[in-house]
Amino acid sequence: MNGVLTIAATEIRIGLRNRWIILSSLILLVFALILVLLGSAPTGEVKTDAVTVVVASLSTLSVYLVPLIALLLSFDAIAGEIDRGTLQLVLASPVSRGGVLLGKFLGHVFVLSVAVISGYGIAGLVAFYASGGGDLAALLGVGRLIASSIVLGATFVAIGYIASASVRQTGTAAALAVAIWLFAVVLYDLALLGGLLASRDGVFAHSIFPWLLVFNPADAFRLYNMSAINVAATGGNLGGAVGSATPLSGVWAMFSPVIWAVTALGISTMILNRVRP
Amino acid sequence: MNEIITARNVGMKFKAVTALTDVSIDVAPGEQVALLGHNGAGKTTLFRLILGFIKPTAGTISIDGHTPGSNPARRIVSYLPEQVMFPKMLTGREIVRFYAKLKGAPADEVQAVLRKVDLLDAADRRVATYSKGMRQRLGLAQALVGRPGLLLLDEPTSGLDPISRQHFYELTADVARQGGSVLLSSHGLSELEAKTDRVAILRNGELVANGPLAALQQEADLPIRIRVRASADAVDEVFALIGGKRLNCASVELLCPRSAKMATLSKISSLGPRVEDVDMTPPTLDEIYRHFSNLGPEPDMRSEK
Ligand SMILES: Nc1ncnc2c1ncn2[C@@H]1O[C@H](COP(=O)(O)OP(=O)(O)OP(=O)(O)O)[C@@H](O)[C@H]1O
Ligand SMILES: [Mg+2]
Asked: How far apart are CA A148 and CA A143, in angstroms?
């Protein structure tokens, strides 16, 4: 356990000094602020709506940026360390391989949480005061967004480890991470949309599509946040289109990323156990 | 004997490549052993086997009675890989502290080890600013921390200047004095500067020599080089009497087996005033190493034979 915490602490140090992580966290903050300022611009409306709209658009931002930051943190965790010879040192010391991975996971999720909390926390506070100190329920929405974003990020951190443990070169691991991001966040949704359009009879839309939607942790995350704030006004995305017809509604949708995270950690530990550095 | 490393008839095959064949070697507590060999001789492979990263395809290895890679074995072993690049964003102190904690070493050892490798002044700077030698010393610091029972160093002196190298061997001698074993690899005997108790030489994955340097010297039985400077006009006469090879208008060089050293010397001294000076050079470390690695003698010696 001591070793796990030591590894986590060092990963936090490295992560917080990594300029790519700092840069992407700043991008997250800037985008969040832009969305907040755009969202609270139409002043004629009811105050709570403003913050709610902001939370809705921030959750869409999360779907793109949080997995990216997560993969940025994790793709180098194993392949890169073998390349540079530091994993050999860690594995030569009395820490189990599962412990090494767990320590990295805790550290990376912590760094990700710092990025998400600072980005959305600042944006949320700005929205709160810009709308003249709206109600606390809206702030709760921001809290929910932060918590679910961290879970989403943790999932992609763990998935990134599978990529990093399966290849020998950092470059290959990076390419694999980009492919995972592109597939999960962009291509998957496009394919589902295509499926919806193609199958007019409704079988796909009713019995297959909802499952495919929650199967993807990024879509499950969007589903959860949409159902939580329950806004029809922000529709136009897949989550809004299906509404309550999904197999896992509300907070249960978050089961998908959690199961993914646990499974991915298990698989990457298994692969790491076979690695011969 | 309770050896730290016991390797018996170890063989290692990677698909098409046979990296090690029938290697048996022991290392006792407090002993310093140098593992020599050409590129691809199997040095790093042997280290990886001792660390338990890979399993031998033949034979057995035990670390103080434990399986390589098992928890008790890993508590004993400390490793410095051939090349290691520490995270550039961390400081030297943070890195040594990290490995100290992983090994469960007390925190005050970090400062002591940094002083030992002469990195105290740079300890709080990021590794990105370190020179090559400083990074190498940082790697050594990381290996020294936690009072290892077995220090495995893969080409630890490459990239060190002669003074740092000297200092490096003082540090490994310290470890040995406290009862720890040291197994280090190197490319040649001359780099080693005869600092270890024992020398083991690998050639194409086979152990071709294993013993103290003096014993290897004896076993190789390479000739001694004697250079005789004749006084003016006497060089032809000297050459005719003792033979050998004429170097220039004043000197004659001859190679004589160790057993004939005294006889040759008395023959030279019997030449009296015709000889002005005598120089004797025992076989160099490089020549001994060449002998065992079977790379053939140096060109000028070959022409003699
Ligand atoms: N994973 C591997 N797969 C295939 N062959 C390997 C593998 N690892 C090592 N070898 C081969 O085993 C042999 C010994 O390699 P090793 O790295 O032990 O040499 P070395 O003595 O450390 O050489 P150097 O002085 O260049 O570091 C080489 O022929 C190498 O190509
Ligand atoms: Mg090597």
From this structure: 9
